Each structure stands twice: as structure tokens, then as C-alpha cells.
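Project standup — Tuesday

K.O.: blocked on the structure for the chain from last sprint. Re-posting the sequence here as requested.
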Amino acid sequence: MGNRFSQLLKEWYEKRDSCQWVLGTVYKTHGPCYRKAGAMMLFSSDGPQFGLLSGGCLESDIQQHAKRVMQSGRSKTICYDSTDEDDLSFQLGIGCGGVVHILLQPVLKKYKYLCLTEIHQALLERRSGVFFQLVPDENGEVKSRFLNTSHEEGTGLIEEDGEAWLKTEIKPDPHLLVIGGGHDARPVVSIAHELGWFVSLYDSRPANARREYFMTADKILRTSTEELSNYAQSHSVDAGILMSHNIQIDMEALRALQSSPLKYLALIGPINRRKEVLDAAGLTDRSLQIPLASPAGLDLGAELPETIALSILAECHASLKEKSARSLSKILTT
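H.V.: unblocked you, prediction finished:
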């Protein structure tokens, strides 16, 4: 089970009335912290925990606070300051040097489950929204609301009528469309699934994209390539990878996806293959509506299907997050 909010909610939803639950949320941080504002975790009275609010070093203590919230039925806030030598996080020798503030809320039917059922349904339907949680004073008041909206709101603290609220942007998991169900597509689908992405796999060839080899694919498509454009739009596909190793299929898919709202589109193969596919599709670099990452991936020295998959998905992830994919330590200088 992963740490994406959609995965947490799926686990919780099936057991929501079988035991008591507390939602833990990072609502503010200072300095370096493992998780940032908006990170969430669910604690149950039966013991299981879903998600992470730190690197795994604070969860046992947070769970003790969560048990008290279950008993009181009121919200509470806690703070871990790894710069304070008297604080638990400092004594544990965590060493991140940051301060993290956490909100704990009881997930009760009388509080409409904190709107978690609404959010769960929205994510199943691949809808975006904004989640508002009251950061209470000492009275421990429990309030939350969810607003369906596709407008990007960001995450952070806001003030309304003298009250502090955490506003968290809720977005569906990235949706990856893989064109081609050959042997080298298996690690692409597997790793993307492990990342918590929704993965659709397309291949019209009967011998390819067989379910027994792609158990983690959320959907396997065998329609015509012309239908890919409609599918990408109606199912909010975020990224596509063309890896059928067939010029005709890649060409048709590339052409079909030009009118889709993809944020990333990659083509497997060397530079000369890129030209072949573009020529066959009647497209040029200038006429492309979506920039084509080809050769696909980051320069990781990849040679095997697994490392090639890692290279491409790393580039895809950086593109979706609008990041540079540079070495944070700058250890890679070339």
C-alpha cells in the first residue's frame, strides 16, 4: 500500500465504521522536514497506520496522541521541534533540523467523516478539489469542508473570520498512458504503479499487453489508435509513452494524441527513429502540439528494461512536477 492520499482513503473507506479513526495532517513546517504541509496519515484504533507524516521516526509518538483524540473526540495540535534539545524529536536524534506542526482530527460520522468520503469519491472520478481543515485553538473544535474545483489553489494556512484553516489542494493521481505492451513495457507499468499512478496500457496486437504480464495495469485498451485522443481527454491522461517498437502504431498514436491535454509525451528509440515516426505522421518539430521527449528519459546510463523505465519515469515525474531533474547536492556536475 502506497502513501498517496487516494490509496490511504481506499484502505480507510472499506473499514471506516469497523473501528475508530484519526486523520493526522502536517499543517505547518519550518526549515527542512521530511513531509510538508498537506501531508496526511490515518491512524486506527485497531493498530494499522496508513501513510507517513515523517520519515517513520515520529509515527509511534503521534499514534499515542491519536489514541487520546479517539478518547476525547476533539481535535488537537502537536509540534515536533528538532532544534530544541528538550523536544522528543531532538532526543530521538532525528537531525533534520526542522519544526513540524501536526493536526489530529477524529474521523467521526457526526463530523461527516471530515468530508473524506466526498474526497474519496472525487478521486475515484478523477476530480480535483480543495480540502479545508480548521486548525483549532484549545477547545479542539472539529471542522472541515471540501470544495470541488479544477482551479489550482495550492496548499497553505489561511484565515477566515478569525480562524486558522489549512487549505490543501486535492488532485487525482497522475494518469500514464503506455502505448505498446511488449516485454520492456512491464517495468514501466510496474514502477508507475508502485509510484501510485493510474496506468492505462494500449496495444491492439493480440500477443501483446496480456493481462498475466501486466497485473498492475489499471486498464488495458485494445481500441483503434484513433480512439486514443478521446480516451486521453475523457480520462484526464497526464502523460504518454510511445514504446510499441512499431512505426505505424507509434505514428498513429502520436498523431491521435496531438489534440489531447498531455503534459508529457515520450517516444522510445534513437534520434533517427524520432524522425521516422514524425515523417510517417506528417508532423514536424514545429507542428507538434505537445513537445516530444525523444530520445526519452534522463541520462542515467540505462541499458536494461528496468533502468530504462526508471530513466523515462524520472523524466516524466520531473515534467509533471515542473522540476529541473538536477542533482540536489550538485554532485553531478556534468
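K.O.: great, moving the ticket to review. The CA atoms of residues 8 and 14 lie 11 Å apart. The longest strand covers residues 21-30.
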